[in-house]
Prior knowledge:
The chain is of the alpha/beta class. Helix content is 44%, strand content 21%. It has one domain (5-126): VSR Endonuclease (Endonuclease, Chain A, 3-Layer(aba) Sandwich). A hairpin with a 4-residue loop joins strand 2 (46-52) and strand 3. The termini are far apart. The model is unreliable at 117-127 (pLDDT under 50).
Amino acid sequence: MPINxxxxxxxxxxxxxxxxxxxxxxLKAKQLNGLKFRRQxxxxxxxxxxxxxxxxxxxxxxxxxxxxxxxxxQERTQWLNSQGxxxxxxxxxxxxxxxxxxxxxxxxxxxSPLSPTLSHKGRGSDI
Length: 127
């Protein structure tokens, strides 16, 4: 039976993690450089945590399960990159313990004139 991604995205919005809620509080309502971010948005066969279409930036808040799913995450990131998106990944504890540093990393990427195909990809601290 095919997965209904619209319903899955709605459920993910309802059951956000503490880190996702904190990050959304800082991204919503065009608070970051006047940019519109969406949360739990379907892109292709994936649901991404946050996306800014204007800057083609996706932000993923990763919990401990992602340490075990590196291959899946790499495949997902590669596909999203091939669609023109930059993917920034932050660990949940990094968001909770260093929200200002995370926001600065996101802000720097949003201000970057580099195209998605030329930018560096990785965790927030690798930008």
